[in-house]
Amino acid sequence: MSKLTDDGIVTGCEGDVLGTITSSIMREFAGSPPFLADIVHADYGSNEVTLWHCGAAPFSLAAPGEKVILGEEFGIGGLNVEFPLKSGVVTMARLGYIDGEYRMLVTTGEALKIGPIVRGTVAQVKCDASAKTLMDKLIYDGWEHHLAMIYGDVAAELEQLCKILKIECVRL
Predict the structure, then answer these.
(1) Any idea where the L-fucose isomerase C-terminal domain is (predicted)?
(2) CATH architecture of the domain formed by 2-171
(3) Which end of the chain has the smaller Cβ count within 10 Å, N or C?
(4) CA geometry: angle 58, 61, 65, nearest 5 deg
């Protein structure tokens, strides 16, 4: 998946079709590969969220100077890619579907410089909006569990796309 996404073929894991579509849309706007991930930790005090997945990030997103490790996927077979992602301005988004309607969640932040803190691929993002508000939206408003992250600020483009497609844009 890492190599395919780097080669321009956007992939998604766990059968997440709408997450893959979100990633593909963001790639078109930003011109760079996306990272489809879970939020595995939120720190409301520092206003940061940790995005992680079991080795699905494109190799080109590895932080400078960090090793890209290819290992066994958590003892169950298969290949796991491990590295911390680079720092920089990011957009996080999610195309969702609920009650027969599409909607899109859009927020921005800055991926911070971190070292390898867990196995898999990981980014630590300081949110521009409230991390608590983001988590509350995801949990209480029934959003699917993956967010797509892309380097660059494409929030305005995503909002415009929602307007054109006549779908709700939840902008944080």
Answers:
(1) 82-169
(2) Alpha-Beta Barrel (3.20)
(3) C
(4) 125
